[in-house]
Design brief:
two-stranded antiparallel ribbon; alpha+beta; Alpha-Beta Plaits; 3 helices
Length: 98
Amino acid sequence: MKKLQDVIVRPLITERSTLLKEKNKYSFEVHPDATKQEIKNAVESIFKKEKVEVTKVNTANVPAKIRRFGQNMSKAYRWKKAIVTLKPGQKIEFFEGA
């Protein structure tokens, strides 16, 4: 079992994620081995001050991109993305300033 702080790596603040905030959905980069239940527990415990309740967690594995440096080829790291849906009327204050 991982620590709950290790499950969520960072919040994703992109154009798409700001549009998803209107639908009560928030995006995070998570640990590649994290399960949906671990992600749900981590979000609810980290943002317990706002008293959020997660209704749904969608995950996607983002594959590594191939980078080229002259003749050399290498891969950037792969990562996992989670889109968390909250109950209607709830929000995470952390994202409101972004």
